[in-house]
Amino acid sequence: MGLRLPEYVNSISLNTDDRPVAFMPFGFIAFAEEQLGNGDQFGLYWPIGQEGQPPIVAETFHDEGAVMPAFSSLEVFLSQVDEQRESGHPEFPSYEADCLSPLACYEEARRMLRNRNFDAAVPLLEAAVAKLPEYTSALALLAAQYLRQKRKDEACRMAARTIISPPSFGSGEQVQRICSWLSNLDEGPADLVQDPIWQSRASLASIPSGGTKESAAYPILAEAIDIYAARGHIVTALTLMQTYSEHMNYETISFQQRYRFDFHTHWQRQREMSTRLPDGPRFLT
After folding, report:
1. Domain definitions of the chain by residue range
2. Of 31, 102, 110, 278, which residue is most buried, by most CB within 10 angstroms?
3. Sequence-distant (≥ 6) Cβ neighbours of residue 142 within 8 angstroms
4. H or E, element range at 45
């Protein structure tokens, strides 16, 4: 089937060049409109496993290696562009303007937390990760709120998903704290007992970030990808493959060679595995 193009796609100029770009996640297709240049651009992004659904609109920030899941749909994006035509580059929507936007839900949840309205933040974060299951920042913050509510099993599940999810969708202290918390647990929910990330949690306290000669995390993550794929958990395997690729791209060439990582080979494997998705593959056909 391939990626489902949204309504109004004829209103934008899609970049159909299928060559991989290291800082753009697999499943992101840039378009020409409203580009800032230097790798900062808007594009369509299909959450992993939702290839048969209309995509969200995200913006990449090359220098930060970040992807902001700003608009819930192309229709909302185009509407905001029209409204802000005279003010320049389109701003990210507020929750009131786009209540289905993953970013807007996340930012509204943060506002609730600043106002100490803790319980109101949880459904907003749940909405964010329902729309974008690999939204790392939202997963980490949701895990923390589940902990606050003493929902430990659910916090464990969100923490494991945080490790699996790409740094382009979130990194920093909140993510690191949740990974560290998970690594120190002695027990967790029964449904995680056979999960390879849960089983290796003690060795995943620190997310790879470059600058070291060795990292115990990479062999663990590589093995977990193989385990998920062998079990038929293709969405999880592909999510972790994207995460692995992004972490590796922060490393030096010599580091990559030691761990036998080649970006183009890895990307080709992602393409091939995505054909196993129910509504895949994760590229235009």
Report:
1. 9-274
2. 102
3. 122, 125, 126, 128, 129, 158
4. strand 42-45
d(CA 57, CA 282): 16
Pairwise CA distance, residues 263 & 268, whole Å = 9
DSSP string, 54-120: PPEEEEEETTTTEEEEEES-HHHHHHHHHHTGGGSSPPPPPTTT-TT-HHHHHHHHHHHHHTT-HHH
What sign for the dihedral angle of Cα 148, 154, 156, 159? negative
pLDDT higher than threshold 90 for residue 210: no
Number of CB atoms found within 10 A of residue 283's CB:
18
Distance CA 44, CA 60 (A): 11
Q: What's phi and psi for 68, nearest 5 deg?
A: -100, 115
- The residue whose two tokens read 């115990």 is 216
Model's pTM, two decimal places?
A: 0.94
CB under 8 Å to 79, separation ≥6 — which residues?
Answer: none
| The predicted structure's pLDDT at residue 97 | 94
Residue owning tokens 């290839």: 51
Nearest to 27 by CA among 106, 132, 142: 132
Per-residue pLDDT, averaged over 178-190, amounts to: 94
Give tens-digit pLDDT for 240-251: 999 999 999 988
* pLDDT number for residue 65: 84
Distance from the Cα of residue 99 to its chain's centroid? 19
CA dist., res. 269 & res. 233, Å (int): 15
| pLDDT of res. 121 | 98
DSSP run (H or E) holding 36? none
- Which residue type sits at 183? S
pLDDT single digits (tens) 59-93: 999 888 899 999 999 999 999 888 877 667 788 99
